[in-house]
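Journal club prep, shared notes

We agreed each person brings one worked example of a sequence with its structure written out as tokens. Mine is DUF2470 domain-containing protein. I'm keeping it raw so we can talk through how to read the token line rather than staring at a rendered picture. Sequence first:
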Amino acid sequence: MSDRIRGHMNADHQLALKDYLVVYGNLSLSEFDESSVLITDVTEKSITIGYVSTKTSNPESFTINWDDASEKENVTVSGFGDIKNKLIAMANFAAEKQGYSSKQIKKALGPSKFGEYVMYAAFLYLLANVYDKNLVRSVFAKDALFSGYIAPYVPALVAKVSGLIQDHAGLILSITESIHILEILLVTVPNIKKYRVPLVPSLQWIFMHFIEGFFVIKRWKTLTN
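Then the structure, token by token:
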């Protein structure tokens, strides 16, 4: 059982091990080599975590007695069968103590639904009109190559609305992206911090939110619920 617990935690739960050292061991992340953190021993009484000190470059260890490891669920370890629940409770407590979630998001979840892709098309449409509103209008002009095939199928109201959008594309784009930036600051950035998202996927989340808006918030929920 000791080998199984040690192997599983070392392979799949490095984040929790680092959190244990920070909260229960009172170490800052700068005091140990994060890649060196490993459980070296597990018993019915305690867990021992080994790491390399950045101060001395020497291997060191820290032992946490189950009875001394406070957490919100107050799990009591009386045998190996209780250790899993204790480790989970400790991970949740240690992450929350630092203002984080015990779950880490390591990837960016891209668009997959029609409405999400429409936002990219709308952004490009508005951007094209900001650059040159006659650029889009020229596609529907009477002498345009495909205008004879397109015009009969475009209702007058749609054409009128499209004309208004083209005339006010800059204002619409400014308002839309201002709202998206506000959402990014209030929702996406806090989520990035809470779930400790690495740099590259963090930038991907921010870029997608800048274009899509609330669709990105919905995708966050699928990963965090």
